[in-house]
Amino acid sequence: MSETISGGHLVxxxxxxxxxxxxxxxxxxxxxxxxxxxxxxxxxxxxxxxEQVAAHAADGYxxxxxxxxxxxVTAGPGTTDAVTGVANAFRAESPMLLxxxxxxxxxxxxxxxxxxxHVDMMTPITKFAATVPSTERVADIVSMxxxxxxxxxxxxxxxxxxxxxxxxxxxxxxxxxPKAGQYRASTRQQGDPEAVERLADLLAHAEKPCILLGxxxxxxxxxxxxxxxxxxxxxxxxMNGSGRGTLPPGDPHHFQLSRxxxxxxxxxxxxxxxxFDFRMGYGKRLSPTATVVQIDLDYRTVGKNRDIDLGIVxxxxxxxxxxAQAASGRIENAGARRxxxxxxxxxxxxxxxEKRLPRQLSDARPIDPYRLVHExxxxxxEDTIYIGDGGDIVTFSGQVVQPKSPGHWMDPGPLGxxxxxxxxAMAAKQARRDKEVLCLFGDGAFSLTGWDFETMVxxxxxxxxxxxxxxxxxxxxxxxxxxxxxxRARVGNTLGDIRYGDFAxxxxxxxxxxxxxxxxxxxxxxxxxxxxxSLINVWVDPEVYxxxxxxxxxxx
Length: 556
Ligand SMILES: Cc1ncc(C[n+]2csc(CCOP(=O)(O)OP(=O)(O)O)c2C)c(N)n1
Ligand SMILES: [Mg+2]
Fold this sequence. Notes:
By secondary structure, the chain is α/β, with parallel strands linked by helices. The protein has 23 helices and 19 strands. Helix 1 (about 5-20) crosses helix 2 (about 30-40).
């Protein structure tokens, strides 16, 4: 008799071929054969408390490792619970595969347990969604889904595997099992060489250039190319999303607080790997007279919402390196020529910083959120991965916290999903045991997925959790107060006064309550020392709001 293999074991072989060494999951009878396959292939199984967390963790794993992440959930509610995680990965351009169970094909449309039209549900929020029709094709279709994750800007794929397809055993020689490194090619594109030449030309003539290094700079692992580019051509750089940390704070080309000034006054603006979405005011905040260049992995993003002077589709690293090379020799004395512009921006930057500094150092009680995010910024090391998960408190941190290394900043991305924090911390710590992980939560955001703190304890994944606790969904409350008046501002946004430090202890972690600003730093140090998953619950002033919240920029 020839050797046989089941569908679940074929899934595990396909994951192994892709280099995936962990799946995030919440169990169900439809999917257990995949676990059995993972045991054979040496793939770790991390079981979480909510499928949303499994999907966010797969997204986070992809961001941290550069490999696709994988979450495995059961049919019906398991899959619907994971929708938010897939949707977040879709908007954030994060390559992950969600595998959902499904009722047996032999019971198709008969009303089997947890039967739902998963593929229809997932199609609009994935790059590829399909049913696996036969056991022989399981590994083949998993590898197809991974190929599709890398079409243009990366994104998620979804597969549902009916229970009988997954559990059946087929002769090994009948199954197609793609071999590692032999079923998909690099999708890195160099960009149209003529367009790169034009960019070099624009750079040679610009007096006041600036560049925005967006998330794709990290996705493309283009950090070195971006650094070489800004240094060789003397271009001030702003960073957003996962692009934060490309240059370390203190670097002469690292700018942050003068972004609006630069976008208003520059003569050449180069936007790399970030769409003209709400975070960019749909492109309206860029000077109408500036020459605008947009570089992106996805042709659909280039020129969307705002006209551009030059668009280049392709890999950020290859394009920046080629443009720097083409411009070198053509730019005479870029350093001296742009010194005045750089000085001008630095002055704006310094003024904005000094204006805010007293707030950052405030001894006020209740604690000024600026003080909390200032303390966190001071506490971060080059090896701390920073995660933000919340509303107003995270808006504060976006202004003040500066990651010290590339790839050390994680936020949900343009879906603005509360609840990513625990999952991102889980993926980051699991993939990079050598790193410290710090997550700042709003108390509202924390409570969406906070039970997975227990998973962090169970898998011994120490991290420093900080809760900016204002007993409110403050970012929303601000808008309600502004629109309906203070007497109606408290509807639907008030949370209990929860001692989350005690919650951490209950679940086996380290916890503290902090009400004195002078105690923030020592508490953070003790959390670091504890070597445990921790929650430092910092009671911040609920009556102050971040400028970004007060401008309600996210709705504009
Ligand atoms: C999943 C999800 N639900 C709802 C929202 C809408 N929302 C945006 S900010 C916010 C308040 C968050 O409260 P918290 O995390 O406590 O942060 P705070 O604003 O109080 O600092 C809410 C509910 C969202 N972004 N994501
Ligand atoms: Mg809150």
